[in-house]
Amino acid sequence: MSRPLIVDGFALGIWLSNQRQRQRSLGRPTRLGHHLTALDAWWNPPWPVTWQRMWWACRYHLTGLPDGLEWWAAAPNGEHAASWLREQGARRPLLQPRQQSLVDELLSLVGEVPVWQPRISDAAWRTLSAVLPAPSHTGGRPRSERQILEAIVHIACTTQAWTRLPLALGPFQACRRRFLRWRNDGTLQLICRAILPEQDTIWQQQLAAYIDLSA
């Protein structure tokens, strides 16, 4: 539960956070804690609450929000949730047994572990490859620079940390450096203004929003 959550004027998020801290400091569940656990078995999990919040976000993206509920402020979008689930599936052996069960529950809804898919169409790349500045090295430009742009678009669409970049997209350090360079020299702004096929306009809009946020 997010700390800023307020229901009918009551700071429910802060209240739950305080109850969670109290139980953890006591080292045992209180009577109130037992009642809260009856309502939600994972309100005070033995792992970071941020992990549990992402689990719920992923589940709601897969099943839809229950009637009467709305997404909380800064909730992860569907791209972020899918990327998070892919990461949890890959590191499943490192999770606690009860976490593994929760991940398995989500994977049963998906049917299989979601894999990274390119977002930039071939038609869009033919346009964008002419927009990019001349490479500072020789060899491999079409493949390596397209991969780097895919990495930048992936981070913009999922809003995940660079350290969580899929291995298929290469070292995150190099991709982040290129993002900063292209943002500062205006290349990314040109990419966002380029006329591309309709299927590419979605990631263009998300990239533009991410540039504004990072600035």
User: What helical percentage do the residues reach?
Assistant: 55-70%
The profile of the biggest β sheet is: none
Mean pLDDT: 85
Q: End-to-end span in angstroms?
A: 29 Å
The unreliable regions are 138-143
Task: Write out key terms for the chains shown.
single chain, 215 residues, mainly alpha, 10 helices, 58% helix, Transposase_6_like
Report on the architecture of this protein:
This is Insertion element IS402-like domain-containing protein. It comes from Streptomyces haneummycinicus. InterPro entries: IS402-like_dom, Transposase_6_like. This protein has 215 residues and is mainly α. Helices cover 58% and strands 0% of the residues. It has helices at residues 12-26, 31-39, 49-63, 78-90, 97-110, 122-128, 141-158, 172-184, 187-193, 201-214. The chain is elongated. The protein starts with 11 loop residues before the first helix and ends with a helix.
Q: What order do the helices and strands come in, and which of them pair?
A:
Blueprint: H1 12-26, H2 31-39, H3 49-63, H4 78-90, H5 97-110, H6 122-128, H7 141-158, H8 172-184, H9 187-193, H10 201-214
